[in-house]
Write a structure and sequence with these properties.
The chain is built from three helices and seven strands; from the N terminus they run αβββββββαα. The model has no long low-confidence stretch (mean pLDDT about 80). Helices cover about 15% and strands about 45% of the residues. A four-stranded mixed beta sheet has the order 1-2-5-4, covered by helices on one side. Strands 3-6-7 form a three-stranded antiparallel beta sheet, with no helix packed on it. It has one domain.
Length: about 120
């Protein structure tokens, strides 16, 4: 399976902020779903809008989280999400931050799937 084909199964708009870095399938012993498909996504190095005027530098990733997504045919689908951390200097003080997804939600026209995805990753 090609990564460009996998992108067709993702919520609309997700690739604005994340890139597909890998995917893996494995056989399961479940009756209904015979395979697992895990899609690995990493947040792009785009400075969050709320820190656009500050000195910001990407500072690695937070611990990856798995989100269950809609099944595809006979496969359970999981999205393995790695969100970025940022070092930001505000008023001469350095602090670690991550993207505020509620800001993205307000400024985006999105599908229900993408909205549900953002709501899920906002929990971490």
């Amino acid at each position: 399976m090609d990564i460009s084909i996998i992108s067709l199964f993702l919520p609309a708009g997700i690739l604005d902020y994340f890139e597909i870095v890998d995917y893996k399938t494995k056989t399961t012993k479940q009756e209904l779903f015979t395979k697992d498909l895990t899609i690995y996504l990493e947040e792009k190095a785009l400075v969050p809008e709320e820190y656009a005027n500050a000195s910001a530098k990407a500072s690695g990733f937070m611990e990856a989280r798995e989100i269950d997504d809609y099944p595809i045919r006979d496969m359970l689908v999981k999205l393995n999400i790695k969100r970025r951390r940022w070092d930001v200097v505000i008023d001469g003080k350095k602090k670690k931050v991550n993207r505020d997804w509620s800001i993205v939600i307000k400024g985006t026209r999105m599908s229900e799937d993408y909205s549900a995805f953002l709501k899920e990753i906002s929990r971490y």
